[in-house]
Amino acid sequence: MGSSSTRASAAAAAAPSRRKVALYLTLLTLQYGAQPLISKRFVRQDTIVTSLVLATEAAKVICAIILLIAEGSLKKQFSNWTLAGSLTASGLPAAIYALQNSLLQISYKNLDSLTFSILNQTKLLWTAFFTYLILGQKQSSKQILALALLISAAVLLSVGESSSKGSKGGSSDYVLLYGIIPVTVASMLSGLASSLCQWASQVKKHTSYMMTIEMSFIGSMCLLASTYRSPDGEAIRKYGFFHKWTLWTLVPVLMNAVGGILVGLVTTYAGGVRKGFVIVSALLVTALLQFIFDGKPPSHYCLMALPLVMTSIFIYQKYPYADRKKKD
């Protein structure tokens, strides 16, 4: 009894306050929302994408190491590090995310934007499902309603984004096999990977900073291996890694790196489901910033989605799952 209460109090002391968690969620929402506009302004059209991704992953690792030094836990984390623990906590999610990205690329080429966006939003439900399956984290009936409202808002935002884009042709069997099935599996894998990251941080006590370092390293190795025969790899060998970079290119790279750190913190302390709320809320932030800086007014779909997002966040926070046995 004494040891369990001591562990519980230690865990409570290690966990950040609600205000800090709310700050992480807010900052991540702003970062997600502003990133498209920042990248559009500061990254040239013909910049090599792989160089941006690799630079971002390197910046994430540097940021995570600096934060571990600031915490005074760098030596402890690396002294306790094992290859088996790293592969279990970070290797599997990193591999799943890599497969998910490949499936999304296949699907995007063979589906119209609207269908793709709608099916891609089911990752919110898959995250809730796998969080329950892996962590036993249940949702109340009102929280399930909140998730339904959030997905409805995401669909509305997707409709507004893709209404001007035409649908892609193809036979129904081909679209099913190379469009609908890949994006559905990718959404499922996204929920699984997010839940595994949450499991690694909350159950295995793998810190978010170490997971960021490990997943960035694994992802970078996979990306570097792909450059052997990819068009981006050829471009890097021909023109150099920093082809078409300017000093301003560092702005979106560093901003994306900070976003990666925040994703780890949000997944650890708020969970994968709440991260889904951040992603959808960020679409509204993007619409607002486009109106402020580009003079592009938000669509009717965006205005309809706004109250749905706000209502879903309120309901999800207000009515968490309560175990009846504990109540009794």
UniProtKB/TrEMBL annotation:
Gene Ontology molecular function, alphabetical: pyrimidine nucleotide-sugar transmembrane transporter activity
Keyword set includes Secreted: no
Compartments in which it is found: Golgi apparatus membrane; Membrane
Record keywords: Golgi apparatus, Membrane, Transmembrane, Transmembrane helix
Record-linked InterPro entries: EmrE-like, Nuc_sug_transpt
Membrane topology label: Multi-pass membrane protein
GO CC field: Golgi membrane
Coiled coil: none
Transmembrane segments: 21-38, 50-69, 81-99, 114-135, 144-163, 175-197, 209-228, 248-269, 276-292, 298-316
Domain of life: Eukaryota
Membership in a protein family: Belongs to the nucleotide-sugar transporter family. CMP-Sialate:CMP antiporter (TC 2.A.7.12) subfamily.
NCBIfam families recorded: nst
PANTHER family noted in UniProt: NUCLEOTIDE-SUGAR TRANSMEMBRANE TRANSPORTER
Role description: Sugar transporter involved in the transport of CMP-sialic acid from the cytoplasm into the Golgi. May transport important nucleotide sugars such as CMP-Kdo (2-keto-3-deoxy-D-manno-octulosonic acid) in physiological conditions.
Name by which UniProt lists this protein: CMP-sialic acid transporter 5
Biological source species: Digitaria exilis
